[in-house]
Design a protein that fits this description.
This protein is mainly beta. It is globular. 22% of the residues are buried.
Amino acid sequence: AAIRVWDTAKWHQVSLLVHHSLTVTQLAFSHDGSKLLAVSRDRCWSLWNRNQDDKEKDLFTLIAQMDKTTKAHTRIIWSCSWSPDDRCFATASRDKRVCVWSQHSGCD
């Protein structure tokens, strides 16, 4: 599955973010707009950084990801949300688990 990013002023696609193997169920921008979090039916999340340099080829770069080997979620991840200070985010799954993620830890 891919995430298509559009320029709404000109209505054309500006980026294609390919990472997940199944449908992306939710996206959440950080409060400052610098990061994009995606969760998916594939039981994984991906974290993208928005490139501020106009010389960069891609608008977003993948900076972190969860894979199935961590087994943090065993079912589809339905939801994600950032903390007010953008230091961590939470993911919620059909497995009835909510995981809080930060740069220095896994699922808490």
